[in-house]
TrEMBL record:
Key words, A-Z: Membrane, Transmembrane, Transmembrane helix
Protein name: Acyltransferase 3 domain-containing protein
Transmembrane segments: 12-31, 51-70, 91-113, 142-159, 180-196, 208-229, 245-262, 274-294, 315-336, 342-362
Name of a matching Pfam family: Acyl_transf_3
Residue ranges occupied by any Acyltransferase domain in the UniProt entry: 8-357
The keyword Transmembrane belongs to this UniProt entry's keyword annotation: yes
Superkingdom of this protein's organism: Bacteria
Organism annotation: Halioglobus maricola
Length: 385
């Protein structure tokens, strides 16, 4: 595969991982075992827990893998100066611009949501907030940008120490990315780090103080993507073998889910061996999901498509913005007595429609679109230009 070829499939895969944030965060509102500390609905279903567990297994690992891949691509094609300038415009500037208004709006909604949960009515009583520090020590949806900035700092330091570390062959680049010699150590390392957390894998960390295990897990995924670019010809092999990788990863994910539900509490005798098994199968599930999704999208989305390109362009804005309309829609539906799945579908559909409409009407051809996507685009897939 030529290094200069535009990788439409991986562009779309990166966008899809961001767009899945809408589904993931809608699930969180209706879980039996809620993970949000500021709102969860009276209607709950185990199906929401299962869907969230599955998406969470691969979503951010795949995203950080692709971030490492495209960062290595920029460095190879344009050099360090242009790469860092590009990453500054695409990561640092959006973080600085969008975090303050996002924090103000989401903090307000957090307080109102807690009041609705406590009293059934909207209010602004701060006494219902269980952890007031999270009102200010919170990167919200932009936590992934925060960690990407940390990884860029790590790359900068590495290039200062070894300016040629991005070039040349070494033991890692001489063997195929999908080889057992690469995958087994990767998966075992992810399993070891994942064992530090209840679900056997890394979590999202929204605090401004970085969590070492989160930094290491997603940093490994970022580095794995960097390595994949150094072995870019392996994309053809992954495109051919994505099905067995997907099956294996899904089986491991299913075993992980059953183990999580069965392991009990730390006081139970079975807890430690079950948690070890959970972490082990999750590590292999994460590793092989990364291979499978890269292969799948390299095979089936390799050519230009105006619809996938449009979604790729809109994904950044949708992920930044979506929590605002989602929570604003969820709060009025608090007392609606229907199944959790129906509320989930309503919230997902309405949030997606609002986000896409706001992107097309106010973002795509504005300065915001230029900040997020690097250039203004006037083409839309449903109109001939």
């Amino acid at each position: 595969m030529p290094a200069s070829q535009r990788l439409h499939g991986l562009d779309f895969l990166r966008a899809l991982m961001m767009l899945l944030g809408v589904v993931l965060h809608a699930c969180q509102l209706y879980m039996v075992n809620p993970v949000l500390d500021y709102y969860w609905d009276p209607a709950r279903s185990l199906s929401m827990d299962v869907l969230l567990f599955w998406i969470n297994t691969y979503r951010m690992p795949v995203f950080f893998l692709l971030s490492g891949f495209f960062t290595a691509m920029l460095l190879e094609r344009h050099g360090p100066k242009a790469m860092f300038e590009n990453r500054y415009r695409r990561i640092v500037v959006p973080f600085i611009i969008f975090l303050p208004p996002l924090a103000i709006i989401m903090t307000t909604l957090r307080i109102v949501a807690r009041n609705v949960m406590a009293t059934g009515e909207t209010g602004f009583d701060l006494s219902y907030i269980e952890n007031p520090a999270k009102l200010w020590n919170n990167t919200h949806n932009l936590w992934f940008l925060y960690y990407l900035m940390l990884y860029l700092g790590t790359v900068w330091l590495a290039l200062k120490v070894r300016p040629k570390c991005s070039h040349g062959n070494n033991a890692l680049t001489r063997r195929p990315i999908q080889s057992l010699a690469t995958m087994v150590p990767l998966c075992l390392t992810l399993a070891l780090l994942g064992s530090l957390n209840w679900p056997g894998r890394a979590r999202a960390e929204l605090n401004f103080i970085p969590a070492l295990d989160v930094y290491l897990v997603y940093g490994i995924c970022f580095g794995f993507g960097w390595l994949l670019y150094r072995r870019i010809d392996d994309l053809d092999t992954l495109a051919e073998k994505w099905k067995p990788y997907m099956i294996f990863a899904s089986v491991m994910c299913a075993v992980a889910l059953v183990t999580l539900l069965a392991k009990g509490t730390p006081d139970d005798a079975r807890y430690l061996p079950m948690h070890a098994l959970l972490s082990l199968v999750t590590g292999f599930s994460v590793g092989y999901y990364m291979l499978a999704f890269v292969g799948l999208f390299s095979r089936h989305c390799a050519s230009y498509n105006p619809w996938t390109r449009y979604l790729s362009d809109s994904a950044y804005w949708i992920f930044i913005f979506h929590s605002i309309p989602m929570v604003m829609l969820a709060i009025p539906l608090h007392g609606w007595e229907v199944a959790a799945e129906w509320k989930f579908l309503v919230i997902c559909t309405a949030t997606s429609a609002i986000c896409l409409a706001s992107y097309q009407l106010f973002v795509r051809n504005s300065w915001i679109g230029q900040v997020l996507n690097g250039q203004r685009s006037t083409t839309v897939p449903w109109r001939k230009n």
